[in-house]
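User: Hi! Is it possible to get a structure for several chains at once, not just one? Here's what I have:
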Amino acid sequence: MRRLLRHRGAVAGGLIVLAFVFVALAAPWLTPYDPRAGDLAEALLPPSPGHPLGTDYAGRDLATRLAYGARLSLEVGILVVGMAVVVGSLWGAVAGYVGGWFDLLSMRAVDVMLAFPSLLLAILMIAILGPSLTNAMLAVGIVAIPNYVRLVRSVVLGVKPKEFVEAARAEGAGFWRILWRHVLPHAFAPLLVQATLGVATAILDTAGLSFLGLGADARTPEWGSMLAHSKEYFRTATWTMTYPGLAIMTVVLGFNLLGDGLRDALDPRLRGRP
Amino acid sequence: MARYVVRRLLLLVPTLVGIVLVVFVALHLVPGDPATTLLGQHATPEAVAAIRERLGLDEPLPVQFLDYLAAVVRLDLGRSVITQDPITSDLAQRLPVTVTLTLFSMAIAVVVGVALGLAAAVRRSSWIDYLSMTVALLGVSMPVFWLGLLMILYLAVDLGWFEPSGLASVQYLTRVPARTHFFLVDSLLAGDLAAFQNGLWHLVMPGVALATIPLALIARITRSSLLEVLQNDYVRTAYAKGLPGRAVVWRHALKNALLPVLTVVGLQFGSLLSGAVITESVFALPGLGRYIVSAIFNRDYPAVQGAVLVFAGLFVLLNLLVDLLYSAVDPRIRYD
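Assistant: Yes, the chains can be modeled jointly so their relative placement is included. Here is the combined structure:
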């Protein structure tokens, strides 16, 4: 922890992430406006005291939509990465621990998944499930799974032959108990780093899919979808494009800085590696 | 070397079959009957039965897969549900746009990324170092679609330096005969330098926007890898025998420092191809990415299937090229 607090990048990233989480949680109390309903008479107003970041094409307050967008992005980050971490870790742990044909099949499946450019695999899934924000999140989550499978499997393979695992087995501990109490804790540090960086990727990819029209709809205050709908107006109403993009970049930057800092703090040998 | 290449090509086969399997299974997971999707809700049962037979949908799944695999090997990807055009010829027109964009971006990323990383490592802890690494950090976090819109607004609309969208200006697009469907190549074949220049100029903004993420990663890895190499004994020897710093870096250190860079280049082709889908949409480029997105909206499943297959195949091939390059650069990598 002390190493983390001495890392300037990590502190900056941590502050950005804290501010982001605060805005996401406090959105309803920060603004008097409705993020979904607008007044067409107030469409595309430039920033003013009443609307500090201006309004969009439907007359909705942009700052309000950005704040609720933070809420949605936080949800995206937690749900997408949570799903990928849980499924990927379990899969990787079982594959590494059990070995044999299950491991072999799992690794071939992972190889094939990694043979697709990630966003393309997500797009293929959306083609099956149909475009929506939930499906975009599901697709981005599934695509992230192989990274965690590989990571946890390699940790398990390293720990499995160790004496303390054998000792636990000799004491009569069951499969799940060994995995949970003796093996998985070793994967915690690398998982934390990967998950923090994974939140950045999840937010970026989900926003990208929404930008393409394959995620959130126009009413939902989602940053990528807000950018997509600014395309027709941004030449005259630049604020409709500038602020949502700035929001995505800042939050992604925050998680990237924090992730890099965590990696340096948890494993000083990797300091400075990209 | 030849044996190594053949071995790598053979190893490609199971991966490619796996990709075809995933795409095949994906299409069969689409809710509803493909025959009904093709003909619409009001088709007669006879028509549905006829098309089921024509498409081989009555066969058991493994047989259907083998048929599909055989068709893919013959480069027959079926017909678009919407236009009835053969998908292979649709893709043949769009693939060159995506390939040109991706390679052009990678070239920008490698040249600028290595230069930034080199400057940062040689002048460690100077303002150049901090500036390069800040640029790299911002690059990794920059959404391609936002950077694209910013460039269109400021560089194209406000300053008028570039065209906001498209492959080239209309007069050139209609004037240059499409032989290879690579616009730049076609314009050179036609001896039309003005068209070539125009096409290249149109490519700059999408190319730079797409290059940011790999550029940033390449700059970071070049810096850290060069810093590591510069600590080696042979570098100290080179300095000790009186070689000027420039010669040490260029002749001794850089070549060894570039190996990890090559690995990143290979890995980043995936993110470039993913980013190409978005970039093509921002800059209205008629490539594979835009084709897939519009096919999804049209529920044109065979077209989605074909385009994803080509995208994945391209990714695998680009990775193979990087691997081969890797073993050519580093003779320590054994060919067996």
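Chain A has one domain: 2-35+43-270. Chain A is about 70% helix and 0% strand.

User: Great, thank you!
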